[in-house]
């Protein structure tokens, strides 16, 4: 029997609690997400900050990033990015999908994750998780 989590696996309070400490970092006035390195004649690359690396590790360690066919869901994900008010009623499963998409997308488009962090989308996801935790909506 396969005990690997799926996109529809229940999300526990412990999983939410593992991410909430990162809220303080994302709420800083100018958090350092990392920096681009560009050398003449070479492709640039992004090096994430230690805090971002720790956040990504927590996402994997606490099963927020799970395999699923995210590409068909990308259009929906963009709606959440473009209209943050849509997150008001998002459940933890939707947030798992969005986090998975952003982390996976970064593998194909380096810097994507830094962009959604800078734009406040990841902060909005964490704030929504805090509300879900507070309301006991799991």
Question: Would you kindly provide a written description of the structure presented here, covering whatever features stand out?
Answer:
With about 140 residues, the chain is mainly alpha-helical. It has one domain. Helix content is about 50%, strand content about 5%. The protein has seven helices and two strands; from the N terminus they run ααββααααα. The chain has a two-stranded antiparallel ribbon with strand order 1-2. A hairpin with a 7-residue loop joins strand 1 and strand 2. Helix 5 (about 90-110) packs across helix 6 (about 110-120). It is globular. The mean pLDDT is about 90.
**What is the total domain count?**
1
What gyration radius follows from the Cα positions, in whole Å?
A: 15 Å
Spatial strand order of the main sheet: 1-2
- Counting helices, strands and paired strands, the structural category is mainly alpha
Q: Topology as H/E string? A: HHEEHHHHH
Given as residue ranges, the uncertain stretches (5+ residues, pLDDT < 50) are: none
**Strand elements, count:** 2
């Amino acid at each position: 029997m396969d005990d690997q989590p799926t996109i529809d696996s229940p999300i526990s309070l412990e999983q939410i609690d593992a991410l909430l400490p990162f809220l303080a970092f994302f709420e800083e006035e100018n958090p350092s997400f990392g920096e681009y390195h560009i050398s003449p004649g070479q492709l640039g690359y992004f090096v994430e900050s230690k805090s971002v690396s720790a956040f990504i590790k927590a996402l994997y360690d606490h099963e927020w990033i799970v395999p699923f066919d995210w590409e068909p869901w990308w259009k929906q994900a963009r709606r959440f990015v473009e209209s943050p008010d849509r997150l008001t009623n998002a459940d933890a499963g939707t947030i798992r999908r969005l986090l998975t998409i952003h982390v996976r997308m970064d593998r194909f488009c380096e810097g994507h994750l830094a962009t959604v962090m800078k734009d406040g989308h990841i902060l909005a996801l964490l704030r929504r998780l805090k509300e879900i935790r507070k309301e006991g909506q799991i």
